[in-house]
Amino acid sequence: MLGTLKGRFIVIILILAGCGWALYDNYRECRSQPENADRTCSPIKLGLDLQGGMHLALEVADPDGTLTPEAKADATDRALRIIRTRINEFGVVEPLIQKVGDHRIIVELPGVRDEDRAKEIIQRTAFLEWKLVTGGPEFRAALPRIDRAIVQALGPQDLGADTAEAEARPSETVEELLFRRGTDTTAQGADSLAADTVETAPSRRPLTALLLQGDGEHDFLVAEADVPRVTRYLALPEVQRAMPRGIEALWAAEPESRGAEAYRRLYLLREEPFLTGERLEDAAATRDPQNFQTVVQFELDRSGGRTFERVTSEHLNEQIAIVLDDHVQSAPVVRSRIGSRGQIEMSNAPLEEARDLALVLRAGALPAPLQVLEERTIGPSLGADSIQQGRIAGIIGVLVVILIMALYYRLAGVLAVLALGFYVALVLGGLAGLDATLTAPGIAGLILSIGMAVDANVLIFERIREELAAGRTPRAAVDAGFKHAMSAIVDSNVTTLVTALILFFVGTGPVQGFAVTLSIGIIASFISAIYVTRTLFLLYLQRRRATEPISI
Questions:
Q1: Which pTM value belongs to this model?
Q2: Would you state the pLDDT for residue 268?
Q3: Residues near 418 by beta carbon (within 8 Å), at least 6 away in sequence
Q4: How sure is the predictor about 49, in pLDDT bands with cuts at 50, 70 and 90?
Q5: Which of the 8 DSSP states describes residue 34?
Q6: Would you say residue 88 has pLDDT above 60?
Q7: How confident is the model at residue 172 (pLDDT cuts 50, 70, 90)?
Q8: How many CB atoms lie within 10 A of CB 513?
Q9: Secondary structure (3-state) at 93
């Protein structure tokens, strides 16, 4: 059946239909994406150099130089897997994520418009912890000792503008504001610290003068303008030694408004978490139907759920902090025992930000922070120029090939040109069917493979001419020409295909794009030259007498 002329045409039609469906399916999928509503979709996925996007070179950060080469290589491998998961969930089409050397990761994201958002998702450590909010009385008792440690560590000269600004603040205002929102349980500590505030000059209490009592026993409020200064004080080694044992101070993730002023909450937490994000199974962003706040609902595995249930039952009416990357996302009061499900409150944050947080939580935490070594943004106009130049080069090349083939081989050349149309459709359909990405080097590979497709026809036509010169009939000459040229065509195509495969496995992004397009072009050229051109020859010979000469 397939060896007959009718069977051959059925096979060709089915192949063309499959290519057309692959192109249409890619176009339909592109149009179904909400972010593509205002852009032109292509049935073939375009690479970074054609549609624009961003290029990042990342490396595991090791500012202290404490990581050994083996540990850094292991952290890079783990980061590579996590980044790949995050980008796949982010929805980037055909990203390039690969390790270069032992410690570098290359990320290419074609078509990305919001570069800052993509970079935030990639770099975010996303280390999630649950900690008990505690240590307020101990911290207040240690504040005079902490203040002395700051003064001794920095000295009056190094405090500079810090002490000047603190002295310029009226002590009465500090006394009025400090612990204003304290509860009865903190009254004794408030009185002692207030007395210390009165007795000590502002220059001798650099940290105390900046703290206002928060809503609870274990948190403080700091003016947003003073946050860098307090952060600097808390990071001093002398202050770390003066801190109560097992207690740490962490900032809230977002500032909050109190009247016309913006403040940042400073929480006192137990240093060791009772649960980490390793027990997280799922996370999803949504809106709380009761207060319309943005929340990220999470679900823990069985072991994590049992731990969470036990801790919440032991600490009713106390706060538990949800800490993400050393910032407190929320610190709700436990009103009842909680199992494996909970939520992270994000106040009025956009739902898109909550989705990004849920995404990185599902993907897991990076083993170490990543620093950007190189960042490039490629605009779509550059890609449009590349496409236009490639289109012009392709049209000129095809027209020259058609002209030469038609003039030199006459009717046989016209048949080869018709087969070339099938070849182009097969290449485009192959790229779409394999979800391959077309790059600028890929366009070069496509044009190169057009010449290879014609080269196979040249070998066949020259063999046919030799057979006709030897006195064979046209039908016998055509059969012999295809048969004798087969070995040369197979040899040339196989050697080029092997080279393309080596380029694909050894090369990087642009080289791989060239190799993929070239490989598809080689297979398509072989099919078009051996199968389609011969089918057209058979159709041509069927309509002529056996002894009538052919135009070649």
A1: 0.53
A2: 94
A3: 532, 536
A4: low
A5: G
A6: yes
A7: very low
A8: 29
A9: coil
What's the full length of the chain, in residues? 552
Alpha-carbon distance of 508 to 210, in angstroms, equals: 54
Classify residue 225 by its DSSP letter.
G
Is the pLDDT assigned to residue 228 strictly greater than 70?
yes
CA dihedral 390, 394, 395, 398 (to 10 degrees): 180
At residue 157, the pLDDT reads 59
Q: 160 burial class (0-12, 13-18, 19+ CB within 10 angstroms)?
A: exposed
Phi and psi angles of residue 544, each rounded to the nearest 5 degrees, phi first: -125, 160
The torsion defined by the Cα of 135, 138, 139 and 142, in degrees rounded to 10, comes to: -160
User: Which residues, listed in sequence order, are joined to residue 133 by a DSSP beta bridge?
Assistant: 269
Is it the case that residue 179 has pLDDT exceeding 60? no
pLDDT above 90 (res 243): yes
Q: What's the first-to-final CA gap in the chain, in angstroms?
A: 29
Give the per-residue pLDDT at 82. Answer: 80
Helix (H) or strand (E) segment spanning residue 277: none
68's torsion region: left (phi>0), alpha (psi -120 to 50) or beta?
A: beta
CA gap 431, 447 in Å, rounded: 14
Q: To the nearest 10°, the Cα dihedral for 464, 468, 472, 477?
A: 10
Other CB atoms within 10 Å distance of the CB of residue 258? 12
**What span, in angstroms and rounded, lies between the C-alpha atoms of 139 and 190?**
12
Task: Identify the sign of the CA torsion 232, 235, 241, 243.
Answer: positive
Tens of pLDDT, residue by residue over 329-385, are: 888 888 888 888 888 777 777 888 788 778 777 777 677 788 888 887 766 555 567
C-alpha distances out from residue 194 to 137, 170, 266, Å: 14, 14, 19
Q: DSSP characters for 167-194?
A: HHS-HHHHHHHTTTT--GGGHHHHHHHH
- For residue 247, give both structure tokens: 């207690």
Summarize the confidence of residues 503-509 as an average pLDDT: 75
- DSSP E strand stretches across 346-425: 370-378
Answer for the pair 441, 511: CB distance below 8 angstroms, yes or no: yes
Contact status, residue 464 vs residue 410, Cβ threshold 8 Å:
no
Checking if the pLDDT of 181 tops 50, the result is no
Residue corresponding to tokens 């405090």:
159
